[in-house]
Amino acid sequence: MTLHDIGVLDDYVSGTPRQVRVLDRVLVVVRIEDDVYVLDDRCSHEDYSLAEGEVNVDTCEIECARHGAMFNLKDGEPMTFPATRPVAHYDVLHNDGRLEVVLL
Ligand code: FES
């Protein structure tokens, strides 16, 4: 397990996904108020960037902009078709005002 700094809360706009590269991984970071969620930035349906999609802050889901599949930001599980497989999800730690993503 390794921790990687991805900035501070104010680097992210609530409800607006942002692509972040950490080592060789491309991630999508989503802030909803004081919570931060990180998934692989790759839809499990057809390898499309989830950072291009829209966030539903009420349900805590992100929509793939290509075919509309919804993913739960809390665990990466697909909520609607056409996606049927989850997207990898990573925990985020708040450490002295810094955000650290936990990569396995
Ligand atoms: S590529 Fe994401 S739903 Fe098809």
Tell me what the structure shows:
The chain is mainly beta. The protein has no helices and ten strands. A four-stranded antiparallel beta sheet has the order 2-3-4-8, with no helix packed on it. The protein has a three-stranded antiparallel beta sheet with strand order 1-10-9, with no helix packed on it. Strands 5-6-7 form a three-stranded antiparallel beta sheet, with no helix packed on it. It is globular, with a radius of gyration of 13 Å. The model has no long low-confidence stretch (mean pLDDT about 95). The structure holds FE2/S2 (inorganic) cluster (FES). FE2/S2 (inorganic) cluster binds near residues 45 and 46.
Salient structural properties:
single chain; 104 residues; three-stranded antiparallel sheet; binds FE2/S2 (inorganic) cluster; mainly beta
CATH class type = Mainly Beta
Q: State the oligomer.
A: single chain
CATH architecture title:
3-layer Sandwich
- Mean pLDDT, to the nearest integer, reads 97
Q: Tell me what portion of residues adopts beta-strand conformation.
A: over 45%
Question: Poorly predicted ranges (pLDDT <50, ≥5 residues)?
Answer: none
- The arrangement of helices and strands along the chain is EEEEEEEEEE
The strands making up the biggest β-sheet line up spatially as 2-3-4-8
- Kindly provide the radius of gyration, computed on alpha-carbon positions and rounded to a whole number of angstroms: 13 Å
